[in-house]
Amino acid sequence: MSCMTEPTVHDPAVADPMSDSKRWRSKDVLWLVLPAASGVVAGVLWWLLAPGGLNLVSGNPDLANAANPDSWLPRDLVLGALMLLAGCLTGVMLDGKLQGDGAGRRLAFALIGGALGALIAWLVGLLAAQLLGPAPDPALGPGFGFTLRSYAVLVLWPAAIAFITFVLALFGVLSKKTVK
Fold first, then answer.
1. What residues form the membrane-spanning segments (predicted)?
2. I need a labelling partner for 167 at 20 to 30 A (CA). Which of 45, 56, 95, 137 fits?
3. 64-91: per-residue pLDDT in tens?
4. How far apart are alpha carbons 71 and 66 in whole angstroms?
């Protein structure tokens, strides 16, 4: 009995063109995930810095009480400042990444990530106040604890991303213009 083997043909491996685009898409998703994840840090910072929270910014004992109406505006302003800072940082990091394939996707992911980061920051700040802060006085009602009075503050993060991206793109276009 003779044993014959068939010759084996080895085809060269061809790189899948889709794997490259999938890799870039997964990198683009970071523009969604990182701002959203940094919302946790912003929320904890909000509670640490804001009046009614740990009150590290002012140190004023009168503003340390979350039920004090005088602490409402500074508390919202602290979160607004954190949202602006996060949006500006995201916009600056996005600079130079808006050319080529998938630029619109990266910008959209960054804007959505900024909006998610703002919501997460707000919710984490409220959670930190419940876990680490004093219990609110139930006689005053639910609106007198560590809360956000101006919900418009939450759009500052994506708005800052859009504004910084616009300004940096405008400067990029103007710097390439030939001077006569």
1. 29-49, 77-95, 107-131, 151-174
2. 45
3. 888 888 999 999 999 999 999 999 999 9
4. 7
CA distances, 132 to each of 47, 103, 105 (Å): 9, 41, 39
Between CA 156 and CA 85 the distance in angstroms is: 9
Q: What is the residue extent of each domain of the chain?
A: 27-175
**Alpha-carbon 56 to chain mean position:** 23
**89-147 tens-digit pLDDT:** 999 999 888 887 888 999 999 999 999 999 999 999 999 999 998 877 777 776 778 89
Which candidate, 79, 73, 77, places its Cα nearest to that of 129?
A: 79
> How is residue 13 annotated by DSSP?
P
Nearest to 146 by CA among 41, 48, 42, 47: 47
